[in-house]
TrEMBL record:
One Gene Ontology cellular component: chloroplast
Catalyzed reaction equations: L-isoleucine + 2-oxoglutarate = (S)-3-methyl-2-oxopentanoate + L-glutamate; L-valine + 2-oxoglutarate = 3-methyl-2-oxobutanoate + L-glutamate; L-leucine + 2-oxoglutarate = 4-methyl-2-oxopentanoate + L-glutamate
Transmembrane segments: none
Gene3D superfamilies per record: 3.30.470.10, D-amino Acid Aminotransferase, subunit A, domain 2 (3.20.10.10)
Any one GO MF annotation of this record: branched-chain-amino-acid transaminase activity
Name by which UniProt lists this protein: Branched-chain-amino-acid aminotransferase
The protein's required cofactors: pyridoxal 5'-phosphate
Key words, A-Z: Amino-acid biosynthesis, Aminotransferase, Branched-chain amino acid biosynthesis, Pyridoxal phosphate, Transferase
An individual GO BP term: branched-chain amino acid biosynthetic process
N6-(pyridoxal phosphate)lysine modification, residue list: K203
Family: Belongs to the class-IV pyridoxal-phosphate-dependent aminotransferase family.
InterPro entries per record: Aminotrans_IV (IPR001544), Aminotrans_IV_CS (IPR018300), Aminotransferase-like (IPR036038), B_amino_transII (IPR005786), BCAT-like_C (IPR043132), BCAT-like_N (IPR043131), BCAT_family (IPR033939)
EC class: transferase
Amino acid sequence: ASSTRCKAVEATTYTREVSELADLDWDNLGFGLVQTDYMYVAKCSQNGTFSKGELQRFGPIELNPSSGVLNYGQGLFEGLKAYRKDDGFILLFRPEENALRMMMGAERMCMPSPSVEQFVDSVKLTVLANKRWVPPVGKGSLYIRPLLMGSGAVLGLAPAPEYTFLIFVSPVGNYFKEGLAPINLIVENDFHRATPGGTGGIKTIGNYASVLKAQSIAKAKGYSDVLYLDSTYKKYLEEVSSCNVFVVKDKVISTPAIKGTILPGITRKSIIDVARSRGFQVEERLVSVEELLDADEVFCTGTAVVVSPVGSITYLGRRVEYGNKGVGLVSQQLYSALTGLQMGLTEDEMGWTVKL
Ligand code: COI
């Protein structure tokens, strides 16, 4: 604890640094790590509650080689974004939803989790300490990455005796190299992302390591990413490596229902509500891969990808195109509605944004 305390940063130090904008090429942000000034760290024993936590200079952390996260993958992550507004305020989008999802995941992974209040307060603290890294209006957002991990040492398979809750941030632009242009997906027939009874429904780190193989094969063939099918019937859509998927047909919007193998995306849930509030019929149900063949539009949703239109999907060697090489009308409408709220351009009638 004493070494952690030495690294702790006093509030007075960072308030001096945060006033101006960081020196960065704001016009060329992609989705890669830009190291910022501070990270937040809190610790907890197996059955305890998290310490108050503190800001530290961003940098490497010490981990026991025998830690639960390194040996047995006992870890979760979250993702949310902060946008800068014209009036200088910063907006967070539904941070309490990330806190609740982390709690659900922690329960499944036998980890203690921070309370909703501690999660949200520490996100706010970390964003404000790194305020100069929140991109100027229209240039991107600050991606916030909370981590929860078994940092205590274990050798036999068991929950770790100590946990670390850490938050770091990075300014980001568009997730896909296509920018806002439609992406090209391939339906994966051999690899699966999740199985019934497994951990597909929580944001555990292993879910993302296990899709790297299929993703890299797809990228080598020129696709933007992979769309996974259910592992039982190999017939129903699940999700893309880093986002949820929606299919539009005759103005009806459908998305795979949450049933334990699909990540309950916060953008997914928000898009469903936004679409319904605009009069669309939205169905959460089993969506067969065959439905891709005659869909009008397909789009993906996620914190990182926001709303990404899909330009083509290849399934068993057959390529189907959408949107006439452009962005479909429904995808465009929902993208504008959601980002309008997130960036504070339209009135937040949903009460989803948190102003800093
Ligand atoms: C997010 O959208 O925040 C995610 O967690 C996806 C990640 C693979 C970038």
